[in-house]
Write a structure and sequence with these properties.
heterodimer, A: mainly alpha, MetI-like fold, globular, B: alpha/beta, Rossmann fold, 3-stranded antiparallel β-sheet, 9 strands
Amino acid sequence: MQPAIGRLPGRLWRWPSGPGLRAISLVLFVALWAAIAALIDSRVLPGPYAVGRSLVGHVADGSLPFHISVTLARVAASFFLAMVIGSAIGIAMGRSRRVDAFFDGWLVIGLNIPALVTIILCYVWFGLGEVAAIVAVALNKIPTVVVTIREGARAVDRDLLQVAQAFRVPRRRRFRQVYLPQLYPYLMASARSGLALIWKIVLVVELLGRSNGVGFQLHVFFQFFDITSILAYTLAFVAVILLIEVFILRPLERRLSGWRS
Amino acid sequence: MNGLDINVRRKIYAARNGSPGPAALSGLEFHIPEGQLVCLVGPSGCGKTTLLNLIGGLDSDFDGEIAFDAAPADRRIGYMFQTPRLMPWLTVLDNVRLVLDDETDAAARRLLVEMELGDVLDAYPSQLSGGMQRRVALARAFAIEPQLLLLDEPFVSLDAPIADRLRTALLDLWKSRPTTVLFVTHDLREALCLADRIVFLSAGPGRVVHEMPVLLPRPRHADDAAVEAARRRLLAERPGLLAGLDTAADSAGPDRHRAVP
């Protein structure tokens, strides 16, 4: 029993550090795609080569970088909004039973309203503008942030807070060095799942009511039945999100949880 | 400054349903002259930790007065808990700096080096042994130059030699940085080792049942014959005194294999 438990985390950790395995898996995926595309030989499934050429074209004429940057700006704005508001509400609900009891019903409603409904209502109420788009996306994400952060706030170690109280640590420092570090794992989990959810919703918002951005472009390509460009945009955008994960979120997480190693 | 005056007429915790529960402390009164080291000895559940929380200002919901010369705003009370309660995400040095008014680290560094922690300033608590963690907690308590130091059974669950070394460290610090100390323990031998005076509490609701000065010359150690003799004399004179005490801890000393006369 003992050795099995001892070995498990080690094996889980070695997985991502096997870059060779990752590369093999990726190459295999592209090969599979190419094989199926060649087999079907249809406009609805272009192969990797055609998609790659389309991607280069869209990058060269500047349209793809423009639309991706517009979409990323929306993702960033709504992500920031959702994290700040969701964390504040989550902390309040995790700390106080009364606040929790009061808002819990709202939370259940918020979690269960379909994203599409929020988007339509925001466009109807605030007009087909940038504010409505960002608010709609943030509103979709806030409830899930609240749920995660509330869990974290409930798990806060009261013994450590008592240390800060006994030594009269100033409020600001108490929050930043005693309270917040206990929420970091929950904030990171929230940010991770948030990024994945938000960029998908942003595309829907753009499709329904904006005249630029990746979502809008996909809509246009759909109308022209340009599957190659749709796949090119998808590929580019997934790559950007992966880069954010690798170069921002992971280093951030490593920094915040350095003490665990 | 003339020390600490404690007069707790009544301390009651509210029961779960909101109605008042049984009293935790009742008619508890004693005085600690400035600069004295007083050990508070009593059986588990007699309200020792409750009393420390009242004195330390962690709990102000009680009937009575606790007079302490410094005005509440300038009070510097050092606190050492049963467990080290260090922030796991802060290094040893940062754990001490956390409780200091100015965040300059020269004083904290000097204190830690003096306590033989100079090599682990940048280590995280999880990398240290239990004894070392206690050493850091002790440094943290002394770092604020406390007017009053409260210790709540800080050396329980440690091996006897490590506990003995920590007691020596405590006395060394107390000698070089004089302060009033209230040390809670259920181990009579430990109390005899440390104290200028011992205050005995009854089983809950706690009140003072006996006070005695300890006149043995320092340094003393837990297994000194003089300490042992004093313990026996006290047990013979007042057999009822330690009736509720944790006898396991009390009999785990060197006389375990000796025949009791």
